[in-house]
Design goal:
The complex is a heterodimer of chains A (237) and B (303).
Chain A: E1 2-11, E2 14-24, E3 29-33, H1 40-48, E4 52-60, E5 63-64, H2 70-75, E6 78-81, H3 93-100, H4 106-119, H5 136-149, E7 154-158, H6 166-183, E8 186-190, H7 194-199, E9 203-208, E10 211-217, H8 218-223, H9 225-232
Parallel strand pairs in A: 3-8, 3-9, 6-7, 7-8
Antiparallel strand pairs in A: 1-2, 1-4, 4-5, 9-10
Helix pairs in contact in A: 3-5, 4-5
Chain B: H1 2-27, H2 34-52, H3 60-83, H4 88-117, E1 132-133, E2 136-137, H5 138-160, H6 162-172, H7 174-179, H8 184-205, H9 216-231, H10 236-261, H11 269-283, H12 293-302
Antiparallel strand pairs in B: 1-2
Chain lengths: 237, 303
């Protein structure tokens, strides 16, 4: 679905990603794991056009979209969910859901909001509340609900379980599986909770210092010696 | 009489502060040329009056369009700096430069207009053209009507339209708005166009209450900034609140001080605005709309 070829990117003159090659398969969950500062989140931001690309290609539907601005990528059915500030705090929940369907027509937005509310029924009771007054879990549900409203084909999630209780994090993981299985979404996930994320994933990439250290199926990664050491905190890799 | 003048001045200040706040929220530009935008409006209204005998009240739609163009040109001039991520200081200096250009252009234009009509147009008022209703000046009703119309229009735009919600979303978090497919650039452009339009409309009404000279804008800009800062530069409603606080205080306090200590105090009206601005910054650095009133309430009730 998305092919990344020799991608070099960063912020201004600060290069973060070095020669990254990756393949995100259609209808599957691909997880990117790695230590802090390894460039996982930058990878997602780069795919969405929020960083500076020095060289390389991002092929989506046979087109190089490396230079396509973010708002146009959203129209190409690619959705990106940032780790923080992923909802509009001053807008109501209802307005947030509506604005998520900005590129869709009115009827489609209605239909997608209904779908999102079925997946996240927790939002039904808080539709008129400002998003800034929601709890951490509710906010994350809203952010993911907004991603569903967008009617995206590719969903990029940056640490969706960050700062959530283990119980709530598990609910989020279940919702991610539901989004893949029920809606056929292609999901690219960046997670600190690497073990659990890989358990629900099909494929995985391990980033170290802005480079792909190893890749494979999620199972292969889970059983990889280096990954075991990383997840146990034995080595910084 | 004094209150009447204070309300008229406040209404016009709200129009001007609203534009300043809008462009600051969307592009982070503190526009020092906002006062001169108004004077462009004043001179366009004067031109239409002198050359085509059009009453300034009737020229307001034209001023709206002219102001929109002025706002658009300013934004296009600033865009290269914004693209390079220029700091607020650089942007401030850039708008000061635009203000100086406008000041020079207005001065030169007033000379040209003077030659065309055969009498000096360097200073003028429209007060003699105003009507009265129930013993009040017409400008009181017109400026209040413009404010009400603007508020209803803004409410409908911001809360009832898709573009309006997108505009609010872009103001709060432009990078997240982009991820929703919103063309943030369009919302920025819109805010500059609206800002220029409102300022020029205010400029068309200003000569009904005070004498206009080419440099009047550089004096009003103090009150415009004070209004936006006191209200809170991060909320549109801040311009409304700040506009009335500064407008009423500046007019009323100056008047009462001049009554008590002599008319010499009248020239220090802007000092009142600056004092209120400084006090607000000390107590509430983000202005009145930036205060967490729930916290304040809690504090007052627990103490």
């Amino acid at each position: 679905m998305i092919k990344v070829k020799n991608l070099n990117a960063g912020y201004g003159k600060l290069q973060i990603l070095f020669d990254v090659n990756a393949k995100i398969e259609k209808g599957k969950i691909t997880t990117v794991v790695g230590p802090n500062g390894s460039g996982k989140s930058t990878f997602l931001k780069t795919l969405f056009g929020l960083t500076k690309i020095y060289s390389g290609e991002i092929i989506f539907k046979d087109k190089n979209i490396a230079k396509v601005p973010p708002h146009q990528k959203a129209r190409m059915k690619i959705a990106y969910l940032p780790q923080t500030n992923n909802v509009f705090a001053n807008l109501t929940v209802e307005e947030n859901l509506k604005i998520a369907g900005y590129v869709l027509d009115k009827d489609k937005v209605k239909e997608r909001i209904e779908i999102a509310l079925n997946v996240f029924p927790e939002l039904k009771d808080v539709l008129k509340r400002k998003a800034g007054t929601l709890s951490g879990g509710q906010r994350q549900f809203l952010a993911m609900g907004m991603a569903l409203v967008r009617d995206a084909e590719v969903l990029m999630l940056d640490e969706p379980t960050a700062q959530l209780s283990p119980k709530l994090a598990e609910v989020i993981f279940e919702k991610i599986i539901e989004m893949r299985d029920e809606f056929g979404l292609t999901i690219l996930l960046v997670e600190q909770n690497a073990k659990r994320a890989l358990e629900i994933s099909d494929n995985g990439y391990m980033f170290v210092s802005g480079r792909v250290a190893f890749e494979g199926t999620a199972e292969e990664l889970l059983n990889h010696e280096k990954f075991k050491e990383y997840s146990l905190g034995i080595t910084a890799i | 009489m004094i209150l009447e003048g204070a309300i008229i001045y406040s209404n016009l200040l709200v129009l001007l502060a609203l534009g300043l706040t809008l462009t600051y929220i969307t592009t982070n530009v503190p526009n020092f040329a906002q006062g001169s935008y108004a004077i462009v409006g004043s001179y366009v209204a004067l031109t239409l009056l002198k050359l085509f005998d059009i009453n300034p009240y009737l020229s307001l739609p034209v001023l709206f369009v002219v102001g929109a163009v002025v706002g658009l040109i300013t934004y296009l001039a600033l865009k290269p700096l914004l693209k390079r991520g220029a700091s607020v200081e650089i942007l401030m200096i850039a708008t000061l430069a635009i203000d100086l250009i406008l000041l020079g252009a207005i001065g030169a234009y007033s000379e040209i207009l003077s030659q065309i009509v055969g009498s000096t147009q360097a200073k003028f008022v429209f007060a003699n053209l105003d009507f009265t209703l129930f013993g009040f000046k017409g400008i009181l009703f017109v400026s209040t009507f413009v404010i009400i119309l603007l508020l209803i229009g803004l409410y409908l735009l911001l809360y009832k339209t898709k573009f309006g919600i997108a505009l609010r979303a872009s103001m709060e978090n432009p990078s997240l708005a982009q991820t929703m497919g919103i063309d943030v650039e369009k919302t920025r452009l819109f805010s500059w166009i609206l800002s220029g339009a409102l300022a020029c409309v205010a400029g068309g009404l200003l000569p009904f209450m005070q004498e206009i000279v080419p440099s009047t804008g550089d004096l009003i800009i103090i009150s415009i900034f004070a209004a936006s800062i006191v209200g809170g530069l991060r909320h549109i409603s801040g311009a409304l609140i700040g506009g009335y606080i500064i407008g009423l205080s500046e007019s009323l306090i100056t008047y009462y001080l001049s009554q008590a200590f002599g008319t010499g105090f009248l020239v220090y009206g802007k000092v009142i605005s600056l004092i209120i601005m400084i006090l607000t910054l000390l107590i509430a650095p983000y202005g009145i709309t930036g205060v967490d009133w729930r916290k304040v309430k809690k504090m007052l009730f627990t103490s």
